[in-house]
Design brief:
Elements lengths: L3 H4 L4 H4 L8 E2 L3 H10 L3 E6 L4 H11 L2 H10 L1 E6 L4 H15 L7 E5 L6 E5 L13 H14 L1 H16 L12 H13 L16 H14 L6 H11 L13 E2 L7 E2 L2 E2 H4 L2 H9 L6 H22 L7 E4 L2 E2 L2 E2 L7 H10 L4 H10 L31 H12 L6 E6 H18 L2 H14 L12 E3 L2 E2 L5 H17 L3 H18 L31 H16 L2 H13 L1 H6 L5 H11 L3 E6 L7 H9 L3 E5 L17 E6 L2 E2 L6 H6 L3
Parallel strand pairs: 1-3, 2-3, 15-16
Antiparallel strand pairs: 2-4, 4-5, 6-7, 8-9, 9-12, 10-11, 12-13, 13-14, 15-17, 17-18
Helix pairs in contact: 5-7, 6-8, 10-13, 10-25, 13-14, 13-18, 15-16, 18-19, 18-20, 20-21, 20-22, 22-23, 22-25
Amino acid sequence: MSNPRLLESTSPYLQAHADNPVEWYAWTEEALARARDEDRPILLSIGYAACHWCHVMARESFSDPEIAAVMNRHFINIKVDREERPDLDKTFQTAHALLNQRGGGWPLTAFLNPDDLTPFFIGTYFPAKPRFGMPGFADLLERVHSVYREKRDQTREQGMAVHRALSATPPGGADLPRVSIADAARARLDGALDDKHGGLGGAPKFPQLPMLDFLLDEAAARGDDGQGSLDHAVAALLDGGLFDHLDGGIFRYCVDADWTIPHFEKMLVDNAQLPDTLSRFAVLGGESDGRRDVIESLLERSIDHFLERMRLADGTFAASLDADTQGEEGATYLWTPDEARELLELAGLDADTIEGFLGEYGLDHPANFEGKWHLAAVRRARSVEQVRPLAEPLRRALLARRDARPQPKRDDKSLLGLNALLATGFLRAGNRLGRDDWTTKGLDLLDRLVPAATAVADLPTGYLDGRPSVPAFLDDLALLLEAQTEAFFRVPDAERLARIEEIIGTITERFTDASGAFRLSHAGHGAPVAGLVVFTDDAQPAGNAVLADALTRLGYALGRTDWLDIAEAIFKAAAGSIERAPQAHTRLLAALRRFHQPATVVVIKAREMTAWQTAIATLRRRGITVIASGSDDLLPDKPLPQAGSGLAYVCRGTACLPPEADPDQLLLQFA
């Protein structure tokens, strides 16, 4: 009989566990109260819908009646979707690192004291039977139960020690961190660049988009065009097995150092950042037609094909595609040489084209994944200009066959923060590459996320089939603020500025921490560590970092010193954390550099913008913020001229040059 508690969830991940023999709860007061009342420890399992090893543990252990009986007898079992409850995930992933002195992952398996919700034992995946050097899950359950019953004081003492560490006020500083700390982070990340295979670090190899963005920003600040290691790093994302050569988009990570075999889940968190990262590189060091052509082609593939598959009925985008298809990892994406050759012959392609494709993508080499072939270029490009996107006739024929296969499940949660991140990507890529269609997509998505009649304070972190989940977190609202900031710079109007002020007001009202920074969650979320303050990036940039960056840009552009004061307080609160590991704070350090060294902003005031359109487009392609307005209500300190074609104000920080009335002369200032 299906579990109604999970069937009613707004998470497809929880719904998928409704038929388990385990008596699962969601993270609710009902479950927590039962654990306290019955003095049973909580078994907390955190995962997400696209997670391969989550599926493995579900098949091996959570579907096993004997193991489920032990779980039900000794524990109150709680299942959490980490995308829906990032506060719980961040809390217990950090606890895992404290207890085990290494990173965690998913599924995360934690055992909590019921009275104070402190963890006394945490691991990740456990097999049903002993293997991989790990105990069997059934044996582990009995051992944990015995420890809880026989060593109660010890479990509480350990749990409280973890809780104290998690609740500690972040080490701040009285002074604003020096911008030179960004140089230290760049040096460490430069040392982590893989000169042989491209990218950062070794296996398993992640795209590390926040870190890559930071390095691209640093290169731009130095006037570097990114040739060499950065060019190689971007090419590696696009030429190997991480990029889907048929449908576009990137997989979550590769299991090897040379970017051949991915972990086959596709996450919105990664693909939402791809338009920003790739377009950032396209315009680095000036416009290069070869670099731009490759990037625009592959971005089109990702936006027009993969992201369209992720579009939901309300116009927002789904959270992920599963790593597995019908229980088999990557099954949708794999090929055999005979199948590929046969269908390409049927498509009417000539023998040279077919054999060239088979050789270029390794189908004439030994199988690279469990007896089959995943498409990854054999001879890898070291620069983006050398990347050769798969030709359209080949791509269409292969994709049509692949689409006829069983498909991975889609997690149809619409998450506020990730959709805002994608809206920002559309807007930035549209501005840099002169793609008004992408800019329109960004504006449309943003307005669907927050309809005009919806108060920011009422926004949930996500929806499933129109049903809201828990209230929005700091990261959600920070990413929404960033997207609204990009939209305001593109289409400035009083209504969007009012929305920006509303977001900032909601954040400061609900999430302010005594340190001067902001908490991930608020009291209404019911997290065991409501005061968790996060500065470090992971797959996406930290909310405090995004917030500081948006407030810095808005504060300088609009003369809002109160917003600059908030950003400065975040930087000061993060000082100690940055000093310990600067390379883990890439987005915050990028914001810190912008705070110390404000970017140029061009404000154009004109009743008719026609004469300024070329200048506006040119400057935006170069990454320069342009606010073009025909209203006296916006930026009244830069008045709308009564006569002539308009005026352009070139400002950096709190200082502006004399206004310029000639669009051509304006461009000469940036020659």
